[in-house]
Amino acid sequence: MKIIPYGKQNITPEDILAVTESLTSEYLTQGPRVNEFEQKFASYVGAKYAVAVANGTAALHLAALALEVNKSSKIITTPITFAASANCIRYCGGEVVFSDVDPETILLDFKKVKHLLESSPKGTYQGIIPVDFAGYPVNLEPFKNLADEHGLWIIEDACHAPGGFFMNSHGQKQMCGNGVYADLSIFSFHPVKHIACGEGGMVTTNNKGLYEKLLLLRTHGITRDSHLMKENHGGWYYEMIDLGYNYRLTDMQCALGISQLRRANEGLSKRWEIASKYDKAFKNAGVRSLKPPASGKHAYHLYIVLVSNRKAVYDELRKNSIYAQIHYAPVHTMPYYQSLGNKKGDFPQAENYYEQCLSLPMYPTLTEEEQDYVIKSILEIAK
Q1: Which residue, of 262, 280, 295, is where some domain finishes?
Q2: Domain span at residue 309?
Q3: Of 136, 182, 232, 317, which has the fewest Cβ atoms less than 10 A away?
Q4: 258, 268: one domain
């Protein structure tokens, strides 16, 4: 059988046509498709503003810059995430403070964050970066209340969760990235994500000031806005008024993103269907699946099971051409972060999760035959 990966892009003839039309247009970059993608994505998640950038890491970096993270900043995040969720703080010179995860959801444990803040002097921390890990939406309402109490901002890392949502205490649907509870939210358009642009990212917000700052920082800190410039020599003139970066996304990539966005809900429905089939197959088979949210909807970027003999299961699946993956080795155990004072044993729930986790194939074009083969293989090996 051909290799079955844990994740995979889905490129259709419509996607190819969209990119081809972009290639034959007047603009390859900084053209109209960028703004179109931003507006349509903002509408999709329910936010006022969106800024397209080069990748999810760039989105995190710009978010940290816009919130003025610096060498005196201490920011709280989860150890179970891709390294970029923490690295963005280090890029700005800030200190990353990890807090353990809830063993049921593998999301940042609210109670532990609350204890961390309440046991520290006011002003010790400046922000929190919760991660919608695997597509499981963080309930940001209590985090927002806690952040307001302690004068903190929130960056929601929603790279895994476009289309996911939670229900707030008033029974209102809150889409991941809608800007109601987070100051800034970030997304990724890497090929294995829900929306693929090759590479790409987005920052969403409801804060106009932060939105305008992101636009400036995305393009070298350069402006042509006469209201912001100190001088104006003519139509050709621009000024660099801040230290920014070249984090732009091209029109070609935005054309692909727009095309992919058109069928985002279709892909999400297929992910829910695949997850439901896995749930039923593993329910009484000694393979533990992570529980879905009690309310709201998991976006299922990943479908994760916990197995006691993980290494053996992983190796055997590979022999069967099933390329499951591990998400993630805890960031605090990485040599770089250990060099900053973190150590193994600091966050037992995160480390216990890592010893058992396995991400199974999860993508909209996974066929029934392929999923049946994955399930059969898992159940046989798990015995």
Answers
A1: 262
A2: 264-382
A3: 232
A4: no
Based on the domain organization, do 201 and 268 belong to the same domain? Answer: no
Q: What distances in angstroms separate CA 65 from CA 19, 23, 197, 214, 327, one per listed residue? A: 31, 32, 24, 8, 27
Looking at the 3D structure of the chain, how many domains does it have? 2
Beta bridge partners of residue 220, listed in sequence order: none
Residue-wise pLDDT tens digits, 322-366: 999 999 999 999 999 999 999 999 999 999 999 999 999 999 999
Query: Do 284 and 148 fall into the same domain?
Result: no
Give Cβ neighbours of residue 113 (< 8 Å, ≥ 6 apart). 76, 99, 128, 143, 146
Other Cβ atoms within 10 Å of 72 Cβ, number: 9
Global confidence as pTM: 0.97
Q: How many CA atoms lie within 13 A of 295 on its CB side?
A: 11
* Enclosing H/E stretch for 15: helix 13-23
**What's the count of helices (H) and strands (E) in the chain, helices before strands?**
13, 16
The phi and psi torsions of 302 (rounded to 5 degrees) equal -125, 150
- Enumerate residues 6+ apart whose C-beta is below 8 A from 293: 105, 136, 137, 166
